[in-house]
């Protein structure tokens, strides 16, 4: 299986990002060496997906340190720049968590920060392998004994992480075990992470996939075409409420109505135990132009406004299982992240 995607890497004097805005047409990288460019890359989704944003935030501290040295900033200016990276996007808690892991090492110097950021990256890849194995074990124990028809929404693959993927890590592991018939990849309006990115990853991995409009997903589930839905997450509250790409709630509701397992696959770094419920999760609202037009051409009539939340929150009661790198919690049965004795 091909998993040679490298979303985020340190490049000696800057951060090398795979530019996800031009996939699948072109495979290009950009190297960002200043905070302005990094914040812009995060906001434009050059780099995206909660775990990849966590790694980016961690290395972003090093980017700010180098720029501060080059441009003669004082500590206050450097710290303000780090805060801008931390706040570049609000919903995925991993971005702030990645920054927060490296900030205490700033007084120790650049190499200490880079070592910690690399640890965040390495842990993510290791964790995704574990998520894949735990998720595949849980799913095979609860689904028909044949290759499965799996639905996923947005992109929670190698492109959204430091490698392998969370939801797609589970799919890759099931595929390695000969247990995937096909994957329904929701196209994921308005920025098409499903059709552009998930389908790209699945085709490269040799996993059969069907791109479908987001609006087709609930019907496919109710018609019995789907054995299990597996998605990623951007932030999970202590009670199991889960923020993920807008449209996830419709998938979860249809799964509940059809008795199909709705599985969330995410690392512990996506769990925010400080939030009792999903009510406290900040939901990013993006530019209205993303839904009022396409490819720079306006498609809605002049005078129409737009509501463009990038994420929605699936209530815990609809989350059959949460797969992390330490095992599986059956959230709908009352096993919540906050109910664990301690974060691993
Ligand atoms: O806006 P995006 O593309 O950053 O949204 C990404 C998602 O919603 C993913 O499903 C989530 O971050 C999990 S990635 C493993």
TrEMBL record:
Concerning Gene3D superfamilies, the annotation shows: translation initiation factor eif-2b, domain 1 (1.20.120.420), Translation initiation factor eif-2b, domain 2 (3.40.50.10470)
Q: Where is the signal peptide?
A: none
Q: What does the entry list as the binding residues for substrate?
A: 48-50, 89, 193, 244-245
**Where does the source fall among the domains of life?**
Bacteria
Return the EC number: 5.3.1.23
Q: Which GO terms describe its molecular function?
A: S-methyl-5-thioribose-1-phosphate isomerase activity
The record's SUPFAM superfamilies line, in alphabetical order, gives:
NagB/RpiA/CoA transferase-like
Catalysed reactions listed for this entry: 5-(methylsulfanyl)-alpha-D-ribose 1-phosphate = 5-(methylsulfanyl)-D-ribulose 1-phosphate
Keyword Lipid biosynthesis belongs to the record: no
* Record pathway: Amino-acid biosynthesis; L-methionine biosynthesis via salvage pathway; L-methionine from S-methyl-5-thio-alpha-D-ribose 1-phosphate: step 1/6
Which GO BP terms, alphabetically? Answer: L-methionine salvage from methylthioadenosine
Task: Quote the Pfam families the UniProt record gives.
Answer: IF-2B
Q: Establish whether keyword Amino-acid biosynthesis is in the entry.
A: yes
Could you say which residues are annotated as the site Transition state stabilizer?
154
Q: Which residues form the active site?
A: 234
The record's comment on protein family reads: Belongs to the EIF-2B alpha/beta/delta subunits family. MtnA subfamily.
Annotated PANTHER family: METHYLTHIORIBOSE-1-PHOSPHATE ISOMERASE
Q: What is this protein called?
A: Methylthioribose-1-phosphate isomerase
Organism whose genome encodes this protein: Actinomadura physcomitrii
UniProt gene name: mtnA
């Amino acid at each position: 299986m091909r998993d040679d995607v490298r979303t985020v890497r340190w490049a000696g004097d800057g951060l090398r990002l795979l530019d996800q805005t031009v996939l699948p047409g072109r495979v290009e990288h950009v190297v960002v060496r200043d905070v302005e460019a990094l914040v812009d890359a995060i906001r434009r989704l050059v780099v995206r997906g909660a775990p990849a944003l966590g790694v980016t935030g961690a290395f972003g501290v090093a980017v700010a340190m180098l720029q501060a040295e080059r441009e003669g900033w004082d500590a206050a200016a450097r710290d303000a720049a780090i805060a801008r990276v931390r706040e570049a996007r609000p919903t995925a808690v991993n971005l702030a968590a990645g920054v927060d892991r490296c900030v205490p090492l700033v007084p120790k110097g650049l190499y200490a920060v880079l070592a910690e950021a690399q640890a965040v990256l390495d842990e993510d890849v290791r964790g995704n392998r574990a998520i894949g194995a735990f998720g595949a074990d849980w799913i095979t124990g609860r689904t028909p004994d044949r290759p499965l028809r799996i639905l996923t929404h947005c992109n929670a693959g190698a492109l959204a992480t430091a490698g392998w993927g969370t939801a797609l890590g589970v799919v890759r592991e099931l595929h390695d075990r000969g247990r995937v018939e096909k994957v329904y990849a929701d196209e994921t309006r308005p920025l098409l992470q499903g059709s552009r990115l998930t389908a790209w990853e699945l085709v490269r991995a040799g996993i059969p996939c069907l791109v479908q409009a987001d609006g087709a997903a609930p019907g496919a589930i109710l018609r019995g075409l789907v054995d299990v839905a597996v998605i990623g997450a951007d932030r999970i509250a202590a009670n199991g409420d889960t923020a993920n790409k807008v449209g996830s709630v419709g998938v979860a509701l249809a799964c509940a109505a059809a008795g199909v397992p709705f599985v969330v696959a995410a690392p512990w770094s996506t769990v925010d135990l400080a939030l009792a419920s999903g009510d406290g999760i900040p939901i990013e609202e993006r530019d209205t132009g993303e839904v009022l037009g396409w490819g720079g051409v306006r498609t809605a009539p002049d005078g129409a406004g737009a509501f463009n939340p990038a994420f929605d929150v699936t209530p815990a009661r609809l989350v059959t299982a949460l797969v992390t790198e330490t095992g599986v919690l059956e959230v709908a049965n009352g096993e919540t992240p906050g109910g664990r004795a301690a974060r691993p």
